[in-house]
What we know:
Elements: H1 3-16, H2 18-56, E1 60-65, H3 85-94, E2 98-114, E3 117-126, H4 129-134, E4 138-141, H5 146-150, E5 155-158, H6 160-167, E6 176-179, E7 182-190, E8 205-209, H7 210-217, E9 225-230, H8 236-250, E10 261-264, H9 266-309, H10 311-319, H11 324-361, H12 369-396, H13 399-404
Amino acid sequence: MRARTASKVAWAGLSRNRLRTFLMMIGIVVGITALTLVLSAGLGAEKRVMERVKKFGLSSLMISEGGGTERGRTAGATPAVTLKLTDAEVLGREIRSIEEVAPFARLAQGDVSWRGRSTTASTFGVTPAWAAVWDWDAAAGEFITDEEGTSLARVAVLGPTVRRELFGDADPIGETIQVGNTSLVVKGVMEAKGISPGGGDMDNRVYVPLSTLMRRLANVDYLNGIKVRLRSAGDIDQVVPAIRALLREQHRIAADMPDDFSITTPAEITKMAGEVAGTFNVFMVLVAGISLLAGGVVVANIMLISVSERRHEIGLRKAVGARSADILQQFLLEAIAITVTGGLVGVLIGFAGARILERATSTPTALSWESVAAGIVFSSLVGVVAGLQPARRAARLTPVDALRA
């Protein structure tokens, strides 16, 4: 039997039993929908990882206070006040591959107010190099200058989130805000940056001169981190050991003692985010696989019932000349038609679900041809596997036995 004729016969058989066809299809739809959502979420997570790495800087490194396995946290008895301004100065002076050094200190979330309005935000003490290292400057007004750092100036640059919370659409430049008990004059508003590599809101910050934060706001003599930008991303593998050796010498750390600082590279950010996304994807793929398996079992069982109910039809077709191979082909095509159609419907529902998920939860998703291809391939495989045994049973029936039933 020609494939075209066999397809027509298969579709005719399915259209005569629409309820049965729908019941067989629903399990495949659910499984492929889940698979499409998994692929879309996985691609979206990969896209977000790359966006965060790009924000961090492909040629950048972050040196954080505290040793151990947690970036910027203490490990055991290691103190978290290990980085000093002298460390930043030595790095910039001794390691030629470093182009810019941006030391910073920060205050955790605290009150920021203006004329009765208040919000909470992190306050960062930075140097002018911050703008170059992060490729991030003021969208309005000006960023911190060297002169302001030298004079412990009472000035601030707001992140877009802080500006919106305090001033709405009003121009904040020249206004005086309160950060804790300190009055600061707003001199600029930063460009929107969005989510940080660590997952925080980079726009919910107040920036002040580093010396102002260390002397006036926090009264500390240590840094929370030093971000450096290299002349070339290809220098990272060579620079990391050099930085580690130099800082260990600066901090007088014995050979058998662990580092009292942590170094984060773009590769480590990618790895950490990839591990989280990978765990999520494995779990969701298992869920989708179980759904497809359940759908395949439903298709196989209903098709076995269908063979029993259609014995008379099979007997008539064989009596007028249909071969066992024709019957086998017909039932296989029916199973594949059901699963592929269910797969396509599942892909469409999955795409719609991905968009709804992204808007409702801010979870990034990405739609691609891989999702469509995976839906068609997996649903076709399920159709072949689920339909093979029922098709064989139908093909083995003889005209006499089938018509006698």
